[in-house]
Design a protein that fits this description.
Elements (H helix, E strand, L loop, with lengths): L9 H52 L3 E6 L4 E6 L4 E7 L4 E3 L7 E4 L8 E7 L5 E7 L4 E7 L1
Antiparallel strand pairs: 1-2, 1-5, 2-3, 4-6, 6-7, 7-8
Length: 148
């Protein structure tokens, strides 16, 4: 009397599940870092667009506008008058940290669209890299540099 095997034995099933779970864990780490890196790289063009919008609003409305980095709620806000309100926001990726402290979080543009030159610093928790954001020529140019 021959017995036909149907399916896996318990031992084989546990072995296959263990190997599958191990491979999943090995691949999940680099994928998370990759997603964080992509989110960081997408943040900088969004920042540049918001920067240009703030300058153009200041020039067109002949009033001061302000970009505010809000590290606690992980967003950047564009504030403009008539009346003063938040006009636009962009989220800060979870892997980026603002390093310049709680007091230097605003970038002001006067009615001519000019702002103060300065350099601000960010750190990536995903890659460990530092990002320097250099505001030059009265705010008309923003360069972002990644350093290891």
């Amino acid at each position: 009397m021959s017995r036909r095997r149907r399916g896996f034995t318990l031992y084989e099933m546990v072995l296959v599940l263990g190997v599958t779970a191990g491979l999943g864990l090995l691949l999940a780490g680099p994928a998370a870092v990759s997603r964080a890196g992509l989110a960081e790289r997408a943040f900088w063009p969004a920042w540049q667009r918001l920067w240009r919008t703030a300058r153009q609003l200041a020039i067109s409305q002949h009033h001061e506008t302000v970009l505010v980095v809000v590290p606690a709620s992980r967003r950047v806000e564009l504030w403009a008058p008539k009346p003063w309100r938040c006009r636009q926001t962009i989220p800060i990726p979870r892997s980026l940290r603002w390093l310049d402290g709680p007091t230097k979080t605003d970038f002001r543009f006067n009615a001519q669209g000019w702002g103060q030159d300065r350099t601000v610093h960010w750190r990536s928790t995903a890659t460990g890299h530092h990002w320097q954001q250099a505001v030059q020529f009265g705010g008309s140019l923003v360069n972002v540099y990644e350093t290891a």
